[in-house]
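Something for you to look into today, if you have time. What I am after is a single protein written out in full by you. I want to see for myself how the chain folds. Could you add the entry underneath, on a fresh line?
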Amino acid sequence: MNSPLYNASIPVLQQMLRALSDVLRKAEEHAGQRHIDPSALLQARLYPDMFPLVRQVQIASDFAKGIASRLAGAEPPSWPDGETSFADLQARIAKALDHLGGFQPQQFEHSEGLEIVLRPGTPKEQKLSATTYLLHYGLPQFFFHVTTAYAILRHNGVELGKRDFMGQY
């Protein structure tokens, strides 16, 4: 059986994480070619009240692993947020891709019936159907942080285009 939630999540998350990895590689090359301290890009942000590039990548990878895990009925793994270099971010993305690669379509066959509980036991607790969680919360959040990471780097002179953002599909 082909699972619609698997098809709408895992391949999309993988595509965009691979593209984000390529964008970060280009950013690191850009910094080296122009003798820019990599931390200037890693800590860059679009506006003072927004998270820097490092945090955007961490959150994007957190959403990827969280979406996949929750839709498969599993608890998302917890990863520390200690990345301070491009190599660290690449390792985190590779870890997220490995996590996503561990899921099989059959694990999502009955996902449509799942209830996803966000922030359980807190005043901000939300209960969403799996479809609502994926399409109206998880993917938009994931894309926001991937897009913001791209925009931070583009704003800082890294030569990127739409093809870089999209990756291979």
User: Anything to note?
Assistant: The beta strands are 115-118, 126-129. The longest helix spans residues 4-33.
